[in-house]
Specification:
Elements: E1 2-7, E2 13-19, E3 22-29, H1 35-50, E4 59-65, H2 69-86, E5 90-94, H3 95-100, E6 109-115, E7 120-130, E8 133-144, H4 145-149, E9 156-159, H5 161-165, H6 167-173, E10 178-180, H7 190-202, H8 221-228
Parallel strand pairs: 1-4, 4-5, 6-9, 9-10
Antiparallel strand pairs: 1-2, 2-3, 6-7, 7-8
Helix pairs in contact: 1-2
Length: 229
């Protein structure tokens, strides 16, 4: 199975091609550019380097949130267009699942945190229960960091831009129990999205390419303003 995987949920944009579990090629861009300017040129380069035609893709996988409202819209709309044009299936991967998977195999709890602005983070909590499988122990949510830390009572490895932003607060609240992933693990990799997406596909978790939407966990600014009127 040939898989095209995409992540545009945060500052970086990442795109990868996988053949089953083998990563054929991967491009990650972290230049602060709008993802709409990056994604299609990166896709063209990826296919050219890999000598693969879009029509030969068997499965599309993308992160569907939580994350940047604009970034998620760019990624999901691109995948929708490709899937509808080719008739190939789509799977949606949690951004937090993909970020946590960077630390699979850790003997500590794993806590991915994405900066949600407004002094909040998108987060969840995972534990490595068996080989290469992270099981979610606290569900995904948007929350104040201090409120979420009360659920943590064990050594925990934090990862993500939200964890880096609030590292001092976390360290002060969990002295001797909080650890932070290296810079090499701080961003979601499209290759990881592809690996998780393949598993989801075989489990039957396929999206409707017409109706699926990103999972934001918080209303957009426009929605909040409308509700206040």
């Amino acid at each position: 199975m040939l898989i095209l995987a995409i992540d545009t949920s945060a500052r970086t944009a990442s795109i990868a091609l996988l053949q089953e579990k083998e990563i054929l090629s991967e491009i990650t861009v972290n230049l602060g550019l709008n993802h709409s300017l990056v994604l299609l040129p990166a896709l063209h380069d990826l296919c050219t380097l890999s000598r693969i035609e879009i029509g030969s893709i068997d499965l599309y996988a993308c992160t569907i949130g939580p994350g940047s409202f604009t970034g998620l819209r760019v990624g999901t709309s691109t995948v929708k267009g490709l899937a509808l044009a080719t008739g190939k299936p789509v799977v949606g991967v949690s951004t937090l699942d993909a970020l946590a998977f960077n630390l699979v195999g850790s003997n500590m709890m794993v806590c991915p945190m994405l900066d949600a602005k407004k002094n909040q983070v998108y987060t969840a909590l995972y534990r490595n229960e068996r080989e290469n499988i992270l099981e979610k122990k606290e569900h995904e949510r948007i929350t104040d960091v201090k409120d979420f830390l009360q659920y943590i009572n064990d050594k925990t490895l934090f990862v993500g831009d939200g964890a880096m932003k609030y590292a001092k607060l976390i360290s002060d609240a969990l002295p001797g129990e909080s650890f932070f992933a290296s810079h090499a693990h701080q961003n979601v990799r499209a290759a990881t999205v592809g690996l998780l997406g393949e598993k989801m596909y075989y489990e039957g978790n396929v999206l409707n390419p017409i109706t699926f939407t990103p999972r934001y966990l918080r209303p957009s600014e426009a929605e909040m303003k409308l509700s206040q009127q």
